Amino acid sequence: MSQNNSRQDIPLLSINNLTIDIPTAAGTLHAVRGISFDLKRGETLCIVGESGSGKSLTSLALMGLLGKNITPRADRMEFDEVELTTASARTMRNLRGARMSMIFQEPMTSLNPAYTIGDQLMEALTLHGSTNRKKARARAIELLEKVGITAAESRLSQYPHQLSGGLRQRVMIAMALMCEPELIIADEPTTALDVTIQAQILRLLAELQREMNMAMILITHDLGVVARVADKVAVMYAGELVETGPVDEIFAAPSHPYTRGLLRCIPLPGKTKRGSVLGTIPGIVPSLVGEVKGCTFRTRCEHASPACRGTIPLHTSPTGTHTFRCIHHPDDLETDAVQSTGANA
Amino acid sequence: MLNFILKRLGLAFLVALTVSFISFSLLFLSGDPAIALAGEGATDQDVVAIRELYGFDRPMLVQYASWLVNALSGDFGESYYFKLPVSSLIADRLSVTMLLGLCGISFALLTAVPLGVIAAIRPNSIIDRFALFLSVAGQAMPSFWFGLILIVAFSIKLRWLPPSGTDSWRHFIMPTVVLGYYAMPAIMRLTRAGMLDVLSSDYIRTARAKGASEMRVMFKHALRNAIIPVVSLAAVQMGFMLGGSIVVESIFALHGAGYLAWESISRNDLPTVQALILVFSMFYITFTFLADVLNAWLDPRMRSS
């Protein structure tokens, strides 16, 4: 894959108005509504949001891994100019694992217990090419070493149950990288791991992403991680992208009340006063079954007004890179935010 | 793996020994064999004479030991009724039973596993409903009734198949269907449940994320894991078919080991019954052992435990 400068500027991934409806017994669940973002080669996008906000569904839709009865709709969902919503099963299969890979949340159950690590690593390669077993084996050892597994060669004949969670997640990362993908999606890759391992795995992912010039979508709860690795941030709430933009702008000038609330929940060095109480966002995510109208955050928002039930405009910053979906102008919220932080202190 | 096999083999041997002892002592609990053998008009002297002749007056452990030593060298004594060596009597009958059992379990597996897989891939489809109907019907119908219905339909009305005997392969078709159909529902439902469970697991999603085709996902990644409990069940069913096909053997007049057991019990033919119990339990033990080995090959987690 040649990567000259002009190709670097064309987005590798371009999504416009992605919508995912899930039929349930109680009615249609509008799980993801009108998501749009672009991602260039070598860029890292962090998707942030609480459980059930549609982060994982969005990434599964990109991979074509939603269940049989769930069909995503989008005005555009292109990977390197291939439209994914209309792509054939064969086209998707050839993309998956080869040009776009995914790392899942659960390393303990994501490897097949019946096959050796080596078998599963090599399968990723042999599925997408005519590589012989010897070359596949060499590649598997190379990648296991790359993800920091010692005695890589002897690991090939081990089974998943003989490895710890941290090691299994490293194997999953190695497996996702076997074919040198252009896009890697990591769905909360460290949630199930010990805190001591989490930082190692994230550092490893960020390093490999830079080294191999991959685009990465990292789904996470951890805003500390976002601050360190992201180029762009997308904040999701109840199936909508409420705010998106370059990481510096989001952290410097969070514009949506939800983003502000999230940032208030974590201590930031230099910003949070020692001894002050960390914020919480009261309430729970509303049900998305049936018709969803207006701003879904209004039930938990301190700035909610009757206008929040209507159509919510999409604001774009003067730079054109930072957008958010709220009826309020960030300048109007500024004083409130300071006041509420003051009240908490 | 070798370590695992040796361990299981040792365990199987101990189980076999225990079973042989229990079965031997159970027969003594069912009454004085000498009185039964002597018959109704026998005097006390006759009974004592018979007791001495057959060695029933010796302590039970001594009798067990001498029986076991002989049995290990293939000598199960002489049948009281047939006046023939028990070993040759059983060997004669066992070929029919083993053939029938193998046909039965093959029929059950070849219908149940594909049906279970298809039912799991398309739950609540027409095929799934049809498979459910078949399995409920199979579970509800007694073997003797189903066998008789088949005889009425295919032997008497249509005259396609012979109703009884063992002369050709055509004689084995109906007994195979009856015996196999008895084992099929449980295997089918277990395959379906196993596949449904495995198909929703994370590693199946991983296989798809790698770009594996649906066929590869189903057979390489899912079935291998889903079939593990089925192997254990099939082993028990197989043991049952070899030891307990008495009903089917009597309906179709197949004179196999199951039928011999029925005859010998009703005639108080002690050496034959004892030998048959040992042979049948050896079948169970052998198939359980084979199932364990097969499972350990399928599932590496079992090898280490």
From TrEMBL, chain A:
Chain ranges of the ABC transporter domain: 13-263
PROSITE patterns: ABC_TRANSPORTER_2 (PS50893)
Cited Pfam families: ABC_tran, oligo_HPY
Keywords: ATP-binding, Cell membrane, Membrane, Nucleotide-binding, Transport
InterPro entries the record matches: AAA+_ATPase (IPR003593), ABC_Ni/Peptide_Import (IPR050388), ABC_transporter-like_ATP-bd (IPR003439), Oligopep_ABC_C (IPR013563), P-loop_NTPase (IPR027417)
Subcellular location: Cell inner membrane
Keyword Membrane: yes
Keyword Transmembrane tagged: no
Main subcellular location: membrane
Bilayer topology annotation: Peripheral membrane protein
GO molecular function, one term: ATP binding
PANTHER family registered for this protein in UniProt: DIPEPTIDE TRANSPORT ATP-BINDING PROTEIN DPPD (PTHR43297:SF2), OLIGOPEPTIDE TRANSPORT ATP-BINDING PROTEIN APPD (PTHR43297)
NCBIfam families according to UniProt: oligo_HPY
Family from the record: Belongs to the ABC transporter superfamily.
Descriptive protein name: ABC transporter ATP-binding protein
Native source species: Parasedimentitalea maritima
UniProtKB/TrEMBL annotation, chain B:
GO cellular component: plasma membrane
Signal peptide: none
The keyword Transmembrane helix is annotated on this UniProt entry: yes
Subcellular location: Cell membrane
Domain named ABC transmembrane type-1: residues: 94-291
Keywords: Cell membrane, Membrane, Transmembrane, Transmembrane helix, Transport
InterPro entries: BPD_transp_1_N, MetI-like, MetI-like_sf
Transmembrane residue ranges: 94-118, 130-156, 168-187, 226-255, 275-298
One GO biological process term: transmembrane transport
Keyword match Zinc: no
Membrane topology: Multi-pass membrane protein
Family affiliation: Belongs to the binding-protein-dependent transport system permease family.
Alphabetical list of PANTHER family matching this protein: DIPEPTIDE TRANSPORT SYSTEM PERMEASE PROTEIN DPPB-RELATED (PTHR43163)
Protein name, per record: ABC transporter permease
The species this protein was found in: Parasedimentitalea maritima
